[in-house]
Amino acid sequence: MPLRPQRRTVTSRSQEPRQRFAEELKALREASGESLRQLAEKVGWDFSLFGKMENGHTLGSADVVVALDQYYDTGTLLVTLWEMALGEKAEFKEQYREYMELESEAVSLWHFAVSTVHGLLQTDGYVREVLAVGGIAGEELDQQVEARVGRRALLLREGAPMFRSILSEGVLRTPLRDAKAWREQLVYLVEMADRSNVALQVLPLGVGIHSLVSTDVMFLRLGDGRTRAYTETAYHGELIEENEGVERLQRAYDSVRDLALSRTESRKFIGQMLEEVPCDPSA
């Protein structure tokens, strides 16, 4: 964590929201004495993304902005400026902001996926198709993909949290339209399954109805022993902090884990899925 930059008056800042956001990003980094590459090494994401954000070529995603606010210890300054720059398109909810902060602080994470691979495990091609289905296209799509793929760095950095993801078989039975991109996603899952801090398990469809049949959930265990839960659908996310609610979801998660394949069996299952995807003859 760099020394907190000296706060400055903002009278010299542009009043145009997008430019003001870019100026603040650059000022904070320069005040910390770091280069773009040094910032990228400590926060994650590619240094070129931070350069584009400082030049006003892209706004980045919510994930990136929350990480920068936390890194610079600026409260919600950057998020607020980011929302202003987005204008009417701003859809960044307070609970999601809190969730991203908790995710970056967690010492361990437990996840159950109903229909899609979690963002921490998504490859570029997977991110692109998920965003495209949501209606994002063109230059904005390229920018959002670039901004979001850096989220994977959380599991790859030194001191990365322990991460367990139970994937419903339905996740693996719902391929991308691009066979090459889908193959890359499956290969990445196999590679991540070999990491000491990552545990992947598959929940077979054959187990039938279970306690999380319609709920995508993430548990975040913090350094002080607290655990928070975050449930999500395609249209809504909810951060659950009350012990009773977290405990109820935890019991449901434990019952699902009891039904899932072992880590070894799950890796083999994903490998079998990979064999079913045709190879690119030009590769």
UniProtKB/TrEMBL annotation:
InterPro entries linked: Cro/C1-type_HTH (IPR001387), DUF5753 (IPR043917), Lambda_DNA-bd_dom_sf (IPR010982)
One GO molecular-function entry: DNA binding
Pfam families in the record: DUF5753, HTH_31
Residues annotated as domain HTH cro/C1-type: 25-78
Top-rank taxon: Bacteria
Name listed for the protein in its UniProt record: Transcriptional regulator
Lineage start: Bacteria, Bacillati, Actinomycetota, Actinomycetes, Kitasatosporales
